[in-house]
Amino acid sequence: MEALTDKQIRSSFVNCTKGDAARMKLPLDFAELPWHDLDFLGWVDPGAPLRAHLVVPRPEGLVGITLRVPSAGRTSAVKSSMCQICLTAHASSGVTLLAAPLAGSRGREGNTVGTYVCADLACPLYVRGKRQPKLRGTRHEESLTVAEQVDRMMGNLNGFVSRVTAG
Q: What are phi and psi for residue 22, nearest 5 degrees?
């Protein structure tokens, strides 16, 4: 992924107001992000920890999505979970259900879609072996190449983005 500017990121959001996009905090390590290892940008808002954000490059341009993170009291008692985007298995705290308001009028009416995702939104780093899941989590050994795993991850993510933007 090419390095993005603050302006590119904030103008890409499709399911929040311009004011919400202007107020969101970028990742604390924004200046040091490993752009060459990222296929999309994902982060939990350091100023609002119950909000997360994704910015995904797509053929039609960047698409930014804001998501809700469940509060600590609403997490699952499951021992381990798998990210539906990159297929990394984590201990239960390593995967969270993120809910995205739909774009447009349906989102303003409160309609959402959700998916289970790596809690740190670092899927590209897990796929490339640059980050390892904590505790009992694992990246299962696969016969797919890293490039094929990246394609699968992006296909899964683009499916989710399409569900949000179809709103």
A: -70, -30
